[in-house]
């Protein structure tokens, strides 16, 4: 019994290894905020969210499979939450079932397993009921298949079968054990048997009266005999106890699997709720093939920022279809970094099958996503800032592949503009050559201008607006970043006036 | 039937089902009229302790107590034919394949005896019969296997060939075949028994198995659909004991009641065949361990590059050996990580008496022991230490080694010695060997020369082979029949022994002086030291 809610044909693996640059992405894109919003304090949910976001899908069909399920979840939020909570409850309550000495005696193992089975039977009945009541409300391939599976596997006959086992396993009619003889005359190959329930024929009844089966009794005070009998009984039920205990282990693993498969959708619901309560739009984006080089958005905003600030959020409208290089220049605090983060987050969210923080978003899937953001000065002072940047860049180069996406934020600015621009130019050329899409935020005019001269047609130039609207406009790089604006505001005089000899 | 007695057919009170092939195999150790009921030495020969042969036999028989081999080692042979008979068997066993087959057979019989013993220790009568059946099974398999092995083995010795004929005859006989057939049938019937035990509270009912469904399998099937991967086992592991408790025994009794044919067959089989071991096989098993034990004992020497050979044994007194050594000491030195020094000896022409003199602790006593051991072991038909050897088959080996003073004796040490030597001389013949070690040390030099000469003259008269270890150099040149050998020391360091005993004229006090000089105890040195 498989849920297959995350993938059409396989389980979602919560233990799957994250990409090597996972922590860089988390740090640079403020991913933890998004994860926390998905988790709402549930540690398990947080780890699923992280794995889901970072282990990106690339096939548009896989993304659509999940998006359909996300859509279904949003339309049936209570049901999805209820099923997730049920799985968590089953797992938690199983742990609490008390089993004294349950490892040493088959009888104890059996009775512990029976108690767990009763608990699980109840939970499975509830799950079945949910399926019965709500299967019709779901439209996605994932959930339709899932509910169909539940209704087929957990039908009335099956619960009856479980009930029969629960009754029989209490062994109220005693224990029947078959055996054969070993070379020393001892009984071996003990197997517990289920007595046949067919009615005896008249002849059989007669025989059992005239030739009763031979028996003996253990005397009341015979302690050694009682112990020996108890051991014999234990050996007999050993296999059955093991079978039932393993079976309940299987059911537990089913609930664990269900929890893993539903967690992601619950996380999506949590985030959607939070964003909705802030009045911010979300949309299910359209995924395109990597080669299409699609990137177009309306109202794209930084989801992490949106989750932590009360301030109004600015969205951007960008059309970069077929463009492999986007250069972003302009005013300080003008929204450049924010925009860059919004691109990174949106891409990750698209590629995990989630909605995107925008009113419209269409993009190609990327084979890999990298960030190269400026960092704090190396605290150990073992390398200079430039060294650190270049080392990081080198490690990215080792891993990046064609069809990837890289986001630069003020890279190579830890040296003078001329040198930094030159380095930047080389790096960008190399990336473009390797069919990697580049978004570059920079205040280095030389770098930006260089590309303007060289390949204006194949580059999109965006500029942070002077007016501090935080909205980017299409525009050529300007030689200044409006530093004098800031100076006037803070020092209350003109920088140019002061600077004049 | 005595519960602890392993039935080997030798017990006159139990009938055996042995197939006795007339005149073929009698004994692996003895031949001719002696073969069937040889007279075995029950007491330890007098020379054993002095020659350390008691240590040798103890080491050989250490783990082989069940075979009671000591009497064989106490019975030296008196005819050359039997000695050759044994040599040929030893040679056959040098073949690893043959040796392997034999040890496998011996191990199977040991296991069979262990199973029989286990059977006798069972309290429950039915369990006892099951274990008896097991013993039968092991025995029959061993017989069949060994007969088959021997058929394909390359054997040169009469002993093993005769036994092969006996065994293949036995294994192929109708009686044995019938025994195997019946035993197999009993086993098959018991193997097919299937029963059920119904436990309700304290009531235990035994019923025939009626192909009821496996309940554990049904449980597993119901819940298989939830399986996501492997889960751990929850089986409890039980300790297994051979003997049943009384509940199991009660169950077995009821199973027997319900399966009268199978259990009846078991009962009649075990009752009828309580003694089943072929007499010849039992005998062979015991005697074969004489060879196996001794072989293992000398293998260790060979593994440490010490030579072992088959001696030429005869009634000629011109004996010799090369690279020979004291077998007990050799083992002890191997334990200490050292290698024994080997020596040669030879008596040619009229020579009969070896007089050994030389450095104290120089290997003289060891040499004399080795001489005695070689002759005794040769008389057992065994291979002996040495590269090659020609030895004399003596009628008796007499030893006279220095003994502790007996404080309870009313007479002095010298008197004791003379009494003992008198006894020896009274019994020794020209076909005896006499080994004397450090005689007459408790008297003056003049007396020692006198007495020693007198004793040796008597031995010379009888033409007896003798080794005499003494400090009396004069004895070494007593007559043409004496040979002088000396325990030598290193040339460079006179205090250092070589343990090589070589034919050489006795060289008097030279070594004693050298040692004294080494420790500063010569007269000159003492004079210097005292009062300085």
Explained architecture:
The complex is a heterodimer of chains A (501) and B (532). With 501 residues, chain A is α/β, with parallel strands linked by helices. Chain A contains 17 helices and 13 strands. In chain A, strands 9-10-11-7-12-13 form a six-stranded mixed β-sheet, sandwiched between helices. A four-stranded mixed β-sheet of chain A has the order 4-8-5-6. Chain A starts with 21 loop residues before the first helix and ends with a helix. The mean pLDDT of chain A is 88. Chain B is an alpha/beta fold and 532 residues long. Chain B is 46% helix and 14% strand. Chain B contains 17 helices and 14 strands. A six-stranded mixed β-sheet of chain B has the order 10-11-12-7-13-14, with helices on both faces. Chain B is elongated, with a radius of gyration of 33 Å. The N and C termini of chain B lie far apart (86 Å). The N terminus of chain B is likely disordered. The interface between A and B is large, with 70 and 65 residues.
Write a concise synopsis of the structure shown.
In chain A, 52% of the residues lie in helices and 13% in strands.
Helix-strand category of chain A: alpha/beta
The amount of beta strand of chain A, in percent, is: 5-15%
- Per the principal axes of the C-alpha atoms, what is the gross shape of chain A? elongated
Spans of at least 5 consecutive residues with low confidence of chain A:
none
Helix content of chain B: 40-55%
Overall pLDDT confidence of chain B: 87
**Sequence stretches where pLDDT stays below 50 over 5 or more residues of chain B:** 1-23
Pair with the biggest interface: A-B, 70 and 65 residues
Instruction: Return Rg of chain A in Å.
Output: 33 Å
Quaternary class: heterodimer
Mean pLDDT of chain A: 88
Our count of helices of chain A gives 17
Biggest β-sheet description of chain A: 6 strands, mixed
Shape of chain B: elongated
What gyration radius of chain B follows from the Cα positions, in whole Å? 33 Å
Query: Total number of helical segments of chain B?
Result: 17
Strand order of the largest sheet of chain B: 10-11-12-7-13-14
Report the span from N to C terminus of chain A. 82 Å
